[in-house]
From TrEMBL:
Region named Disordered: 149-198, 777-816, 827-846
Subcellular location: Membrane
Residue ranges with Low complexity bias: 166-182, 790-800
Domain Rab-GAP TBC: 257-444
Name recorded for this polypeptide: TBC1 domain family member 9B
SUPFAM superfamilies in alphabetical order: EF-hand (SSF47473), Ypt/Rab-GAP domain of gyp1p (SSF47923)
């Protein structure tokens, strides 16, 4: 589903397990989908990276030394981790990275401890699993994975540094921690926004800029010391680092608040960012170097928002904090160009930098954007919209009376987006919101839903009395502004919203610990797996809503430029989008990223190439020419592709169809005329006329104030409409191709015979007009004063009569060429299925006799001469084409108007609804037939 939303090309998941033998009663698709679902649940449960694949799981027991008992649960084994989860929720959870494992061995079995396996780690921890059904196979699989695990001492040294707590200098030059890029000559290259002399923090900015000593805070400092001591006792009992036992006591300590000195370490541990950082040493420095000096849309947006990130905090009131925030954001934009940068990322990252180093903040941001808050930070904030829908469903289930009233006011959709995007950091005082971030990293998005529901429940009575949205927003805003943390050591930082709000009486303060406790007591029954199911259902609605919004925007933008109705435009958009999506997976000559640019307006985002356009033209176009249809579609594609990139967008596609279906006769003929002209620039006449207009404006306006330049800018940007006088002249070869196209277009019309006779008459007339025009052009070359008459249509009295022409003259040669071209078109037309009686009827095959015995004067060309292969005709045509012969569009239009059948044909409006219905029916039949073939293949195997 995300591939359809993000328009990424399809990539087969080669990591899915392959069946060792064919299973008759099990679908391969179902097996792969089940395996993918198990992998996603496994990664979400233990906060593992996206490339981690579950190899298998089995029931077992784990000996817990802190409780002196065996805990029943399941053991999970993947390519890089061994994980355990108790059957009872929150009783015990364990994550053992294989890079930390030193010994895996089978222990002695007994009646108390059957089939045990002992796993020892490098930091001297031992884990004992028992009651394993297939112990030998399990040990062998773990041994195989251990052999593939690369040796790395990065995590051990870092853990030892964490535990020792050795002091380190607060700052270090950036050049010492990041590689210095060099230019082509070996000298340091010029970098934008970066300087090697800028310091970077190797610890949290809060510790560097902590002005007040902890002992000056008295009871608050004592409370903080007590928290640190409780965590140290917990580490001694349950372990420290990635292999720590995570129990209900761990959750209790998190809910009571993580000490500031341990906050960064535990955030990395609970989010899974520690594992990713340990397995990718030096990755952050490489991304910073790669991002140095780049100027993209993401970097410009980052620069714009840097000084808006917690401006009230002194850590971001100097260049050191700003530079650190810039490096982390640009490094992530370099890592994930699909996201780049999104608003609210700067707020979250600035909080991470207060407690973590730059590299740690980077990996925490990776965990947030790619795992814990999926699809939140992109151009359309899809993930936040999905959780907004989940929150509405939870409100309806838990607070039904308030939900109905809030829906009438439209408040839930307004407030929840900012709450979820910034994890309450933008709506609550910093010292209080950071406690919610503690809980979020441990329990996930569930705690954010619980707190949001508790906020609505606490203000239920006042919200039910509100009469409009503004009043409800004010009540909730003032409530959140007064959620305080009375245990913090840092000086209070007032929230910006609290400084701007005023009231007669200040509202009572709400203790953030009481708010968290209340949310757990009243809404603690929320489960993470239930929330994931609700996310799945809401994601379908959000995607459909976004597509409907895009479709409405496109239709509104094209209503004034197109003659199609709203319903027709919507249906055309569906067909165009379907063709674009299919091209992302099958038979595309370009990548999906090249055909989709989210930064463009909706009507220009989706694009198709020539192959897809030819298919749509054959299904929806009204000018079908049999085997000549592909050629005509290619010419129309070339004309519509304004920027010559080999792709056309929906606006260009509708422009072409609108001219065919709803244009008048002049517009349709003009389009056909342009299709048979080679690509080229504007003629000299139009260019000269534009220069004359500019000179007139400059001469009239002598005083050039700013209004003059605004008018000139508006004139330059105003699209110049091409008139029929601006069209270039058509030579003889192009005219022959035009006649051939018209012949093929009329082949399936009910008035086929009348149209053939009419186009033959018009072709003969235009040939004679071209001959007369050539004489004036030649005379104009000798007499420059007569050039004004070179392009004028010849008077009817001056047209040469056919009977006065020599049989071997140039006019006869041109008529012979047209005759041969029409005969070739007849040969290219696929024969229709006819009965024996229809073949015997002379009128059923008399179309060519009308052309050859009409006004083209082709009696001297035998039928067998025309009906041979076209190779010799092509050579003869090149030798007898008249290079001086040409006609104008005005002459073509005037000649067409003399034949009523042609006028009626081109004035007739097409019915695109019938063609779209037929196209949709063919697609449904094709899907049904494909499903039937698949079922037959399954039954045969």
């Amino acid at each position: 589903m995300r591939q359809l939303l993000d328009n990424e090309g399809f990539a087969a998941d080669h990591s899915l397990p392959k069946a060792c033998k064919t299973l008759k009663n099990v679908s391969a698709l179902k097996r792969d989908l089940d395996a993918r679902a198990k992998n996603e649940r496994y990664r979400a449960l233990f906060r593992l990276t996206q490339d981690e694949r579950l190899d298998g799981h089995t029931d077992c027991t784990l000996w817990t030394p802190f409780a002196k008992m065996h805990i029943v649960g399941q053991l999970f084994v993947s390519n890089n981790y061994i994980c355990f989860c108790s059957r009872e929720e929150d009783l015990c959870q364990l994550i053992i990275p294989l890079r930390e494992v030193s010994i895996v061995e089978k222990a002695d079995s007994s009646s108390v401890l059957p089939c045990p396996v002992s796993i020892s780690t490098k930091n001297k921890m031992t884990f004992l699993f028992a009651n394993l059904k297939d112990r030998d196979f399990l040990v062998q699989r773990i041994s195989d994975f251990l052999q593939r695990t690369p040796e790395s001492g990065h995590s051990v040294s870092q853990s030892e540094g964490r535990c020792a707590g050795s002091p380190s200098p607060s700052t270090t030059p950036l050049s010492s921690s990041l590689p210095t890029p060099t230019g082509a000559a070996g000298e340091p290259s010029q970098r934008r926004h970066y300087s090697p002399s800028l310091p970077t923090a190797n610890q949290g900015l809060l510790r560097i800029y902590q002005k007040d000593a902890p002992e000056e805070h008295g009871p608050k400092a004592t409370k903080e010391k007590m928290k640190e001591e409780l965590w140290n006792i917990h580490f001694l009992e349950f372990g420290r680092g990635v292999c720590m036992y995570r129990t209900s006591k761990t959750r209790e300590l998190v809910l009571n608040g993580i000490p500031e000195s341990l906050r960064g370490e535990l955030w990395l541990l609970f989010s899974g960012a520690q594992n990713e950082m340990d397995t990718h040493p030096g990755y952050y420095a490489e991304r910073v170097e790669q991002a140095m000096g780049r100027c993209t849309l993401a970097t410009e947006e980052i620069e714009r928002d840097l000084h808006r990130s917690m401006p009230e905090h002194h850590a971001f009131q100097n260049e050191m904090g700003i530079a650190a925030l810039r490096r982390v954001l640009t490094a992530y934009a370099c890592r994930n160009p699909g996201i780049g940068y999104c608003q609210a990322m700067n707020i979250v990252t600035s909080v991470l930098l207060l407690y973590c180093t730059e590299e740690e903040a980077f990996w925490l941001l990776v965990a947030l954007c790619e795992r814990m808050l999926p699809d939140y930070y992109n151009t359309r904030v899809v993930g936040a919209l999905v959780d907004q829908g989940v929150f509405e469903e939870l409100t309806r289930a838990c607070l039904p009376f308030l939900y109905e009233h809030m829906q009438e006011l439209g408040v839930i959709s307004t407030i929840s987006l900012s709450w979820f995007l910034t994890l309450f950091l933008s709506v609550m005082p910093f010292d209080s919101a950071v406690l919610l971030v503690d809980c979020f990293f441990y329990e996930g998005i569930k705690v954010i839903f619980q707190v949001a529901l508790a906020v609505l429940h606490a203000n239920m009575d006042t919200l039910l009395d509100c009469n409009d949205e503004g009043e409800a927003m004010t009540i909730l805003g003032r409530y959140l502004d007064n959620v305080v943390n009375k245990q913090t050591m840092s000086p209070p930082i007032p929230h910006l919203h609290a400084l701007l709000t005023s009231g007669d009486e200040p509202p009572p303060q709400i203790d953030v610990f009481q708010l968290i406790k209340s949310s757990c007591d009243k809404f603690g029954s929320l489960r993470a797996d239930v929330i994931e199911q609700m996310r799945f259902h809401q994601r379908l609605k959000v995607i459909q809503s976004l597509e409907d919004t895009a479709k409405r925007s496109v239709v509104r933008a094209l209503m004034t430029d197109s003659a199609f109705s709203i319903e027709e435009l919507e249906e055309l958009y569906v067909h165009f989008k379907a063709k674009h999506i299919m091209s992302c997976y099958w038979g595309a000559s370009t990548t999906a990223a090249e055909r989709h640019d989210p930064s463009l307006p909706y009507l220009e985002q989706y694009r198709i190439d020539l192959g897809q356009f030819c298919q749509l033209f054959g299904a929806l176009g009204t000018w079908l020419c049999g085997p000549h249809t592909a050629t005509l579609a290619a010419r129309l594609f070339r004309l519509l592709d304004m920027n010559k990139d080999g792709l056309i967008n929906f606006k260009e596609f509708v422009t072409g169809l609108s001219g065919m279906y709803h244009g008048d006769m002049t517009e349709k003929l003009k389009l056909l005329y342009n299709l048979h002209l080679p690509p080229g620039k504007q003629g000299k006449t139009q260019l000269c006329r534009h220069c004359i207009q500019c000179n007139i404006v400059i001469s009239v306006s002598e005083v050039k104030d700013y209004k003059y330049y605004l008018r000139m800018w508006a004139m330059e940007n105003e699209p110049k409409k091409e008139t029929i006088k601006d069209l270039r002249r058509m030579n003889q070869e192009q005219f022959i191709e035009l006649c051939k196209t018209l012949y093929n277009m009329f082949s399936e019309d009910p008035l086929e015979q009348e149209l053939y006779h009419a186009i033959a008459t018009v072709a003969s007339l235009l040939l004679r007009i071209g001959e007369v025009g050539k004489k004036f052009t030649n005379n104009g070359a000798k007499k420059p004063t007569d050039t004004t008459n070179a392009q004028a249509p010849a008077p009817a009295a001056e047209l040469p009569q056919p009977e006065k022409e020599e049989p071997n003259g140039e006019s006869s040669s041109g008529q012979s060429l047209v005759c041969r071209a029409l005969a070739e078109a007849q040969l290219e037309t696929p024969p229709q299925q006819t009965s024996d009686e229809e073949v015997k009827d002379d009128t059923s095959v008399s179309s060519y006799s009308i052309v050859s015995t009409g006004s083209l004067q082709c009696e001297d060309i035998a039928d067998d001469t025309v009906l041979i292969g076209c190779a010799g005709d092509q050579q003869r045509r090149g030798s007898i084409l008249d290079g001086d012969w040409s006609i104008t569009f005005e002459q073509v239009l005037a000649s067409m108007l003399t034949e009523p059948p042609l006028v009626d044909y081109f004035e007739k409006k097409g019915d695109i609804q019938a063609r779209m219905a037929s196209c949709k029916m063919q697609r449904v039949e094709r899907q049904v037939s494909s499903s039937s073939d698949h079922e037959l293949a399954q039954l045969s195997t």
